[in-house]
Write a structure and sequence with these properties.
The radius of gyration is 24 Å and the shape is elongated. With 174 residues, the protein is of the alpha+beta class. The chain has a single domain, classed as 2-Layer Sandwich (Muramoyl-pentapeptide Carboxypeptidase, domain 2), CATH 3.30.1380.10. The chain contains five helices and six strands; from the N terminus they run H-H-E-H-E-E-H-E-H-E-E. Strands 2-4-6-5 form a four-stranded antiparallel β-sheet, covered by helices on one side. The N and C termini lie far apart (86 Å). The chain binds zinc ion (ZN). Zinc ion (ZN) binds next to strand 4. Zinc ion binds next to strand 4.
């Protein structure tokens, strides 16, 4: 009679539910699209910030620029949409674009502005951003060109916000 070796334990714990892990990875890699993600209409902005934004755009027009708010993403963004942007166009998970009322109504305290003619690139765009920063600071707004510690060399030159750079965004609009 031949003696059998003792059965080797099967690595069941590794095998069982492996597909659940795959589903989890897929959900992390492809999160559900955000709903009600953004808004650039006037109601999407905080009222006191909107007054300064109007003054800013008037000052820029008086200097010969044609400022516009960036379509789709230049005003309010919900937190889900902000996270989806985080790696590409912004470096914060929550900021002045994401402010809401306590009941969840959009009240952005930031806007992204470009000149309609050259938008992001070219000598006219570069000169526009210099004026944008100067006029924003004159109105007491923060300018994204001052992000990163070297004034004027920051990574977000089209961005203005309700408070000077260095202030954290409030969770709720007043
Ligand atoms: Zn911005």
């Amino acid at each position: 009679m031949r003696s059998c070796p003792p059965p080797r334990p099967r690595p069941v714990r590794l095998r069982r539910g492996w597909w659940l892990g795959l589903v989890g990875v897929a959900l992390l890699a492809y999160p559900a699209p955000c709903t009600a993600r953004a808004g650039t209409e006037r109601a999407a902005f905080d009222a006191s910030f909107l007054r300064k934004l109007d003054a800013l755009m008037s000052a820029l027009r008086a200097k010969g620029w044609d400022p516009i708010i960036v379509e789709e993403t230049g005003g309010w963004r919900n937190a889900c949409f902000q996270r989806s942007l985080s790696s590409a166009t912004t470096q914060v998970a929550y900021g002045f674009h994401n402010v809401t009322t306590r009941s969840g109504q959009p009240r952005s305290m930031a806007a992204d502005l470009i000149d309609r003619v050259q938008r992001y690139k070219g000598p006219r765009a570069a000169a526009f951003f210099v004026d944008l920063g100067a006029e924003a600071n004159r109105l007491g707004l923060g300018w994204g060109g001052d992000f990163g510690g070297v004034p004027g060399k920051g990574w977000d030159r089209n961005h203005v916000q309700a408070l000077p750079v260095g202030h954290a965004a409030p969770k709720w609009a007043a």
